[in-house]
Amino acid sequence: MGEFPGLIMLKPVLHNNIWGGRRLEEFGYELPDGPVGECWGIAAHPHGDCTVAGGPFDGMTLSQLWNEHHELFQGATGDRFPLLIKILDARESLSIQVHPDDAYAYEHENGSLGKSECWYVLDAKDDGKIIVGQKAHNRAEFAQMVDEGRWDDLENLVPIEQGDFFDIRPGTMHAIMGGTLILETQQSSDVTYRVYDFDRRQADGSLRELHLKQAMDVIDYSAKAPTTGEVTAPEIDGVLKLMSCEYFEVLRVRVTNNWPVDLVQSHPFMCLSVVAGEGGTVTTPAGTWTLSKGSHFVAPHGCGTLSLKGDMMLICSYVPTETGRRWEKGEYPELPTKGGATKNRIGIDIGGTQLRVAAYTEEGTELAKEVIPNDHNLGPIENLQRLVDIIDGWDIDYTGIGVGAPGPLNFSSGMILNPPNLPGWENFKIVSFFEQATKHRTYLNNDANVAGLAEALRGAGKGKESVFFFTVSTGVGGAYVYRDEIVGGANSCAAEVFNMVVNEFSDVRPSMNVGSLEDQTSGEAIGRLASKSLARRVDAAEVFALYEQGDETARKVIDHAAEALAKAVHNVSCVVDPDVFVFGGSVALHNPWFIDLVHEKAKKLVLNPQALRFELASCGGDAGLIGASLLVR
User: Fold this and answer.
1) CA triplet 347, 380, 511: central angle to 5 degrees?
2) Is residue 475 assigned to a domain?
3) Dihedral of the CA atoms 70, 482, 264, 235 (nearest 10)?
4) Which residue among 37, 113, 536, 554 is least enclosed by CB atoms within 10 Å?
5) Taking the model in full, what pTM does it have?
6) Residue-wise pLDDT tens digits, 362-390
7) Active-site residues: which are they?
8) Residue 372's domain spans which residues?
9) CA distance 358 to 619
10) In this structure, are 429 and 493 located in the same domain?
11) Domain co-membership, 83 together with 209
12) What is the largest CA-CA distance in the chain?
């Protein structure tokens, strides 16, 4: 229990293609004779099934691993490995083509998957172009333009350069043009409907088959064609998210000798391909592997953080968590677990003054707990090693560790960035520390999210599908939990309500938006605003006491705070309409009548006031510990 599986290094499959060249030799591959257009670097398809190179599964195919050792891909269920990663060398242009979606392919192609794909441009000639999209408005117009050979009018040509990226959804007519080198991430499908092949003849003199009827069946005539493939998303700590869709998410990872990168593997699996640079190493708790341009590997479920060093660029892809969860909830059989595997979990709550750790059973029974001061004379390693020593001293078998910490955090690298109440912890790789120190998988999230998760699964929101959590204390935070999972959003900013604009109130700190929620509703704001009106320093506790004594100034401040929070409730209700709002934090829990006041004000704003349900948090001071332990899945 707790052992980490190693990385799965793969031997690629090479394909001869009429349009191919010899540039794949640049990746260190020994090419067969003739034009070679495709390297299937990570594939478990009948037309190309990669074999494992080294390790305990040496010589097995990726499809065999999927079927016989599915614990390596836990969470990504289905009857086949879902992704296919290729490098394409287009010496000449590929055919103009289109791919079907899942429904059409299943019905017309013997149960095949459809084909959603994307391209990262590794190299292109100076005047390079690519076809993405078409200009016909309907099937009849498309057929007429094809019959008349009006390809220049039909094709949507886009100029390209190295580093461009294109999202090619089913129904998008496309063609990679000559002089282009591309890494393609796609569904594991080989279904292609050719529209035009430039009247090119094969070695035997014949023309390749076209599939015009099928192509016209599946083309999306309403899709807007792109004009550029320029990547504008920010690169953060070497990692840039290229795209996210229901089938896969894709990252570009840039590693330099001066800037190593840690990738947290929290997915059913990750596919990684080294596409540029001199190479380097990847280290996990299971060992270290040497990488070079052209290396392809799978990071299996539970392998731990990937520490990448050297000079290289990688493309990484994985199945979205939402997709995996949806499959696990009924579309496919539940995965088996290892016999006798413990489900105990460790929860860790990182605070500015205290470090808290506890062990829980799968059902939530507390097995052990300890609280120690956060000694600011020590660095994070020395402080956290004290927690590791406590865990080791318990002698409790457990499956993983969840950590709740104050933000900001970088989830992809498992890093605490620059928390204001943790001096000296800047850019600390906390996930990597715990995984190396304990040899157990570790999961990280912010403190508000883990408290919200605790309330949703063990506290006031238990049994509800959709729970929104507000914490109102010195500051204001939020968390949204849907079907037992924290909803983080594309950039991990979902439910960050502290800076939500609720009105035009301007008496806020310079770092906050005008009308921000926190600068009107938090305990700090209540004390600050009342102090100005009273011309003396008071804190929130005194303001609430004055309110109950009938003080007019306190009444105005508290009423204003309740109004602002009610508007935030209304905003959230309009977007996600949760089953229940749960309120925690010292301001809410010490003054439950304040939450009743917010409830009355919010009922005047929401569309369905009778269904607006408020609850006070019930997990108490251990919400952070409980929620952190629930990060372990």
Assistant:
1) 90
2) yes
3) 130
4) 536
5) 0.63
6) 999 999 999 999 998 888 999 999 999 99
7) 194
8) 347-440
9) 14
10) no
11) yes
12) 96
